[in-house]
Amino acid sequence: MNFQLKSMLKFLIYMHILGTLDCARLLGIFPMPGRSHYLLAEKMMKGLAVAGYDVTFITPYKTKDVPQNVSFTDIVIEGVADTYNKKLAEIDLYVDSNRNSYQKMVSYTELFIDWINKTLHHPKVRALMQPGNKFDAVLMEQFFDDALKYFAHHFKCPLILTTSAGPLWFTSTMVGQPSPPSYVPHVYFNGQVLEGMSFFQRMSNLYSYIVHYAFDYWHLIPLQDKVLHEAFPDAPYVTDLNNYTAIVLSSSHLSILDPMPLVPNLVEVGGYHIDAPKKLPQDMQQFLDNATEGVIYFSMGTNIKSKDMPEEKKLALLNAFSRLKQKVLWKFEEENMIKIPKNMLIKNWMPQRDILAHPNVKLFITHGGFLSTTETIFHGKPVLVIPVFADQFLNADRAVQKGYGLKLPYDDPNFNEETIFKLLKELLDNPKYMDNAQLRSRIFHDRPLKPMEAVVYWVNYTLRYHGAKHLMVAGANQPFYQYLMLDVVAFHVAVAWLGLYLLKLTITKLGDTRKTKIKIH
Ligand SMILES: *[C@@H]1O[C@H](CO)[C@@H](O)[C@H](O)[C@H]1NC(C)=O
Ligand SMILES: *[C@@H]1O[C@H](CO)[C@@H](O)[C@H](O)[C@H]1NC(C)=O
Ligand SMILES: *[C@@H]1O[C@H](CO)[C@@H](O)[C@H](O)[C@H]1NC(C)=O
Ligand SMILES: *[C@@H]1O[C@H](CO)[C@@H](O)[C@H](O)[C@H]1NC(C)=O
Ligand SMILES: *[C@@H]1O[C@H](CO)[C@@H](O)[C@H](O)[C@H]1NC(C)=O
Fold first, then answer.
1. Which residue, judged by its Cα, is nearest atom 7 of ligand 5?
2. What EC number(s) does this enzyme carry (predicted)?
3. Can you tell me which atom of ligand 2 is nearest the CA of 67?
4. Ligand 1 mean position to 459 CA, how many Å?
């Protein structure tokens, strides 16, 4: 009887698991309106829906082109995109590169609180939280938004974190991913790291980590706690919410970054956002097809507007381009710029991934954003990087180091026609850059699972093992003084100090007895 009951129960549990696996429900919380963050989130959630998951997507933009016959619901957090774009328009990123990283982080978090708070209070989000409504996993990008981890706590389900620029330190710590400051550059570290780090570079890199730690501890975490507890007074503290973290899907790959040790639950899925190339608009297609001498594609990304460039920089670029036999496609917001050289086509929007796929594209001039870097490596195109802010300097250094690009920082005093022309000639005439770009591309594509297949595989894996706690290294839950062995070091310093003290005491004592002996004789 007892036995029968047990096996019956087992059967029921088994059926239940099968049932939930069949159409597991995923909640993707991605209210961050930054274009590249949104693109990555949207592609991931659509890909998971196509793979058969029931997807609910919290987003700043209405989803376009939802795949057919899938279970996909989006909840738009209205207004956050407008606020973000207005604020972003006020910050001149070209000038912003002069502020220090702590100031930048503080000003960005004030901006970020807007969509975190709006998500926590949104009526449709609140409606999801009705008793009885279940999700099997929560997905979100760890990006100064720890308060949103509360949803994993509410639904008592695993938390799947994503990153949009590789294993960034603040995500890495959630799964105990080591980031030794001796060779893993912090994203705010602006030095060159071409041949390993020198003493001073390592010191400066360490300071970047310490500044970030201090920023988290004194600014970010208290702010997240405040916003979360305003919305949900009974919520745990955000640092406790990290318990729910199961896995990190990092939008990176060995071919883009440098090799580094990876813990089992930080998996690299970089490139999943790149679809098979689509047909280009007719004018672009013709422009590219006709370009027998090759085409240079030039875009400074979505956040940095080319029209904010000072006139002399624009002229320097235009003059350098007009001296080349190659054609130039420039993504530029002023389509009607005066004095456009004959070999140029200017558009305020370009389908970048489809353009890079064209065989006549010989060079990509880029700001070096992480997605652009990924896309250029995917298609094996050399780069001239004009870094402006954040991780773009690092990405520029890597392109130089790996031999598939050259760099010219935006505020370089030698940013003039002659320099630009010389760099472009070198990149176009020396086959080494194209060879190395193609090599990177082969490394990029040489993996057992295609990037989107890997996303689906690891989400499924996480659900199969109910959060896959067996992947988590013990270091993830250690306090930092234990992780860094600071207590053991302190113990040894104390013992050494005590030893020296005792030695000194003995020597003085000995000296004293000798003195007294001498006196007696
Ligand atoms: C997840 O894995 C289960 C069994 O391991 C399989 O039956 C199911 O089809 C998978 N689901 C997806 C969406 O891949
Ligand atoms: C979607 O489902 C309908 C009805 O089942 C079917 O007729 C249609 O072909 C499907 N479309 C796709 C793209 O699978
Ligand atoms: C968050 O939103 C609520 C409700 O809209 C508002 O009362 C509160 O002041 C906001 N908090 C912050 C920090 O913006
Ligand atoms: C997270 O784990 C810690 C240590 O095991 C525990 O004290 C804390 O209550 C947990 N928090 C939550 C929200 O589960
Ligand atoms: C490209 O070549 C085709 C045929 O040779 C020609 O009709 C067309 O005008 C050319 N387009 C451009 C943009 O030069």
1. 286
2. 2.4.1.17
3. 13
4. 10
